[in-house]
Amino acid sequence: MTTLHAACSCGQLHLTIEGESARISMCHCLACQRRTGAVISNQARFRPDQVTIAGKATIWTRTAESGSVVTFHFCPTCGSTVYWESESFPGYVIVAIGNFADPNFPAPTVAVWEESRHPWVSLPPDTPPKRMAKQG
User: Fold this and answer.
1) Whether pLDDT at 126 is above 80
2) Domain-embedded: residue 84
3) What is the number of structural domains in the chain?
4) What is the largest CA-CA distance in the chain?
5) Quick one: pLDDT band at residue 128, thresholds 50, 70, 90?
6) What is the pTM of this model?
């Protein structure tokens, strides 16, 4: 079984994940752009029983463009968002791919909120055609 490790910038908040993700996606919504400071948010979903969380987290909750409530968990020391839960995807822990710090992490296979995608952002070649989907 694959063991993955994700952590904030300072390492205080970290996750150990057993097994493969259920989905790897990228989100182009404006709220994710503001939250990350980047033009795209990339994330992987895991079942809660796969994830062991260690360290302290501060929580921030907002209503997404889809209308669902999203709760973000970030490090109170360095401010890195490490994981979140969304009403749109109950029963999953969603982890920011950058927190794995692994350039070999698999590419996203789903893109959402593409109407907000910057035109110069290229998608992986196997990404399904442009469509509207729930934020994730």
Assistant:
1) no
2) yes
3) 1
4) 39
5) low
6) 0.83
